[in-house]
Amino acid sequence: MPKPLSILQNIHHPLFDKYKVTVQVKRDDLLHHIISGNKWRKLKYNLRQIKEGVYQGALTFGGSYSNHIHAFAYACKLQKIPCIGVIRGEARYASNFTLAWARHWGMQCHFVDRKTYRRRFDTEFLTELSELYPNYFFIPEGGSNTLAIPGVAEIVTELNQQTNFDTLLTPVGSGGTLAGLISGDTVANSKQHRILGIAVLKQAAYLVDEIKCLLSPQGKRHNNWQLLTNFHRGGYGKFSPDDVKRILAFNQQTGVIFEPIYSGKMVLALLDLLAQGYFSVNERIVLLHTGGLQGLGGMIEQGKLKAEDWPILTKVDE
Ligand SMILES: *Cc1c(COP(=O)(O)O)cnc(C)c1O
């Protein structure tokens, strides 16, 4: 069996003692210094497919501060794959924290307005793009396609080697990661774990169907997963000063850095669920650290976070 690619770390917090649970963190944020976390897992088999095929390059979609765009640009540079990012927003974003790096690594940015970006799943728009960029391999926003599933599923295989656990928590954006974990839990062993997805965007219930759709080609059943949609804290990229304070205190307490866009919302959900008595005594919980710390760069640039609270980022020298 292959060796786990990321470590599993025990963390401690007074609330864990109070509610008699144990918590471990699967440190996928440490998988790679740039292509961190779930984006690495989701891209693994996509990149293999591109390398094995006869494509001109690869094209994907994302917001102007997207972790996926950032990871994808670097992965393509490593694999020498020409790459295009269809970016929601105006060309003036080209030198922001995320896109400055992506362009530095060779990504060509194709900017579209919000209205056009909304058509990113429409056949008509995709046809237009494939006429513009013939023979490019298309990967949807967030990297969440069926090829992402087996890469993420490997996290559960690793966890089964590393520990015994009851419940696995992950933040959820487009749902690919949650789908991959569910898929991995059905392959790896007969006992199903409870898998909880914490949606980071508002009105995320529609994702349940997207997740089922990503899982349907495999036709496997898993009855012990849930998407929790009440922990988005106002919507994607939104949080209160108090949320940030609680995440920073948790980081200080545990020595692991969680950011407030994805993994930090999972942390806040964990703390809230504990306080609600959601978990059983002796429950063994694993948090998936999905990485994404580059996203802090954009938040700092937009004045939504203070640089001195997050002293871990390097900007492109242009
Ligand atoms: C993209 C991302 C997610 C969301 O993953 P999905 O597969 O889109 O649900 C979670 N955490 C981080 C850090 C991410 O960058």
UniProtKB/TrEMBL annotation:
UniProt entry tagged with the keyword Cell cycle: no
Entry-linked Gene3D superfamilies: 3.40.50.1100
Keyword hit for Ligase: no
Keyword annotations of the record: Pyridoxal phosphate
Cofactor field: pyridoxal 5'-phosphate
Domain annotation Tryptophan synthase beta chain-like PALP: ranges: 15-291
PANTHER family, sorted: 1-AMINOCYCLOPROPANE-1-CARBOXYLATE DEAMINASE-RELATED
Protein name: 1-aminocyclopropane-1-carboxylate deaminase
Organism: Colwellia marinimaniae
